[in-house]
Amino acid sequence: MSGEEVLKELIEEEIEAREIRRRMANWEFINRQPPRIREALVFYIEKGDIRLAARLAGLDLEDFRELLRKANIPVIV
Amino acid sequence: MSHRGYTIADTCFLIDWSKYRYRDILFKIFRTVFVPEEVLREIKSEDTITWISRELARDNLSLYTVSRFEIDEARRLIEISREKPHLPSIDLPEAICLVIGRTRGYVVLTENRGALYIPRSVDEYRDVVVWRSLELLVNAVLYSILKVDCGSPDTIFKEYMRDTLHLFPRKAHEEAVERVRRYCLERRF
Q1: pTM of the model
Q2: Which of A38, B6, B79, B137 could form a disulfide with A33 if both were Cys (CB 3.0 to 4.6 A apart)?
Q3: Does any domain span residue A75?
């Protein structure tokens, strides 16, 4: 697979994943969170980078993963 | 009896897989699942720690102590990946798993998108076998470890997704269901 094909596949997958995360997310739950947590969840919905989002939230990776479940935000890989 | 030799698992894989109802099929596919110390340090929840501790006691899981060389190589891999702006980022724990996959020939278990794409993007890692849960489920079916309802070949994937709130990209998911469907057809003849 060429670099261009990898890039195309990555972009397509990320667009699809972002739409699903936005659609499935429990926005009521997200908007009730303290600002730091709320922004980290929104960042994850947009970027899908769990480690960076966890750091933004000030949480361990596993605690942030649990928070994603509570907010009904799927991990898509 | 295991079907594959050794594997090395990263944090994202373990914390999702530990929620899966048939999580112990992992130990029927692999002789030993190695967990780097750097990964173990990231595991915090009682449920996951309990599962990992029990499987360490049963010798299904084994701690992997990473060498100085492997850490240096992992940092170099992170630098290489940063030079490819299209690649999702990888961090030290999954980079370590990829280095061990390359140097020891272990299958790498990860749910990190960046790690998944490294073999297709970094030439010296092209032979590393990287599986996410999707490939693990398919192989569990192909090895007849996971019983599949051939009338509903998608059920095994749906169960995993329901247990973990981890979804698969549409195209990869469809290909996996098709592979299971072919397996069912091949078994009929």
Answers
A1: 0.94
A2: A38
A3: no
Q: So where are chain B's domains?
A: 4-131, 134-188
Sheet holding B107-109, edge to edge: B61-64, B30-36, B4-9, B107-109, B130-131
Of B86, B166, B170, the CB nearest to A75: B166
B168-189 residue pLDDT tens: 999 999 999 999 999 999 988 6
Look up the CATH number of domain B4-131.
Answer: 3.40.50.1010
B151 Cα to chain A: minimum distance (Å): 26
Give the separation between CA B143 and CA B128, rounded to whole angstroms. Answer: 21
A77 occurs within a structural domain: no
Hey, of B43, B126, B166, which one would you mutate to test binding to chain A, going by the most A CBs within 10 A of its CB? B166
**Which positions 106-135 of B are in contact with A (Cβ < 8 Å)?**
111-113, 116-117, 120-121, 132
Backbone angles phi, psi at B33, to 5 degrees: -105, 115
Instruction: Kindly provide the ipTM of the predicted complex, given to two decimals.
Output: 0.92
Min CA distance, A19 vs chain B (Å)?
Answer: 12
Angle at which helices B113-121 and A3-24 pack, to 10 degrees?
170
Least CB-CB distance to B111: which of A11, A66, A77?
A: A77
Say yes or no for a CB contact (<8 Å) between A76 and B15.
no
Distance of CA A37 to the CA centre of its chain: 12
A75 vs B11: CB contact, 8 Å cut-off?
A: no
Residue among A11, A17, A63 whose CB faces B44 most closely: A63
Tell me the three state secondary structure of residue A51: helix
Number of structural domains (chain A) is: 1
